[in-house]
Structure formats: structure tokens, C-alpha cells
Design a protein that fits this description.
Structural class: alpha/beta
CATH topology: Rossmann fold
Radius of gyration: 16 Å
Number of domains: 1
Shape: globular
Mean pLDDT: 97
Order of helices and strands: EHEEHEHEHEEEEHHHH
Number of strands: 9
Strand order of the largest sheet: 2-1-3-4-9-8-7-5-6
Low-confidence stretches: none
CATH class: Alpha Beta
Length: 235
Amino acid sequence: MKPVAIFRHSPIEGPGYFATFLERRQVPWCLVAVDQGESIPEEPSAFSGLVFMGGPMSVNDELPWIPPALSLIRSAVAAEVPVLGHCLGGQLMAKALGGVVSRSPVKEIGWGEVRVLDNDAARQWLGPGLSAFTSFHWHGEIFSIPEGATRILDGAHCPNQGFVLGNHLGLQCHVEMTEELVRSWCETGAREIERNGRSPGVQPVDTILQELRSRLPGLHGVADILYSRWLRGLA
């Protein structure tokens, strides 16, 4: 099998639990460290799937790697190479496919409920029994659902938490979190949390960490479901 390419846009926003998931299933993967200057491939044929992680930047920023990333996503979708996006990665997917990424009226940081919509696409990806789950959030922007895609997840502060298009999955929420990732984000982002403490979607660091170990098993269970469905699309 060709490797799954995982695109990292920030040193502290690596693949996390997704890498663990792939390794448990003996699926090969390689890291494209965009944050260290590695270039975006021009076309997806060398990979069985493409995965885009998060990052503190906006997809609307004038960064040299964003246009090639958008082009690669469009090429992958056209070639039926499965694409998966987490937060910034989901926003990249949405923009590449014709959606709009804009500032969210409510910043979200911490744990929050995500609802599973009652439609065929949501059931195909998450099964018949799951109606909601607690996910991790850290975002100040939101995406619209691209034409032809189906919204499968929503939330109280962000109506578009996830969409699917064939074998492609774009997420606004973070299902890839590990204890190490959450702790490092809270450390580096402590001032951002303090500045936005009045937002109804932002939790204090103490609250985030207090619930960390009890939240992770459930989050990983949902990640297993989503990632397993995405894996079925790999050649």
C-alpha cells in the first residue's frame, strides 16, 4: 500500500491519535512537515490518502504553501484519493471545494458537545446509535459546507462541525487529540485562553485539564469509527 501523507502545519499540531490508529492497523504513513519548509506535492498519485492537520494560521492568509495545498486537495478529490482534514485541514478542504472560511462569532477552546445529524451520510460514517459526543475544540474560524458535500456534525457554537463528500471527510472539531497534545496546546495557548475568557465557548485551562483523562477514551472511540470509515476508501 502507498503511504498516507500527513501534512503538519505547526510543530505542536502533529497527527496525534491518528498516527496511533494507522500504526495499530499497520497502515504506512509519512509526515510532510510544512512547518519546516517541506513542499506540497503537485499531485496525489504517490499516496493512498491525504490528511491535513490543524494550525494557528488562517486558510485566507497569504502563505506560500496554501495555494499548492488547495490545488492538491482538488486533484485528490478528482482522482478519488481520500482526503481527511482536522480543523485547519477541514477549512482547507472546504475552501478548496468551493466553500467559504470566515471568522466565527464565537471562539471555541476546550471540550464541547458535537451532535450527529440524522441523515444517511452521517449514519454511514458514524453508525445508527451515536447521536452526540464530546470533542475537543480550538478554533476561531468556521467553514461553510461545499456544494455537493453533506453536513454530518453540528454544535452549539459552530453549526458546521463536519462534512463528507464521497470518501472525503472534513472536520472542524479535533478528534485526534492525545493527552500530550492537549497539555502542550494549553501551555502554548494559555494567553489566548485568558484573552478570550468571556467567550461562552472558551474554557479555563484548569477545566480542560481536569476533564482530560476522562474525556479521551470516548473521543478516541469516536475517532476509531470515523477513521475506520475513512480507511475503507484507501486503495
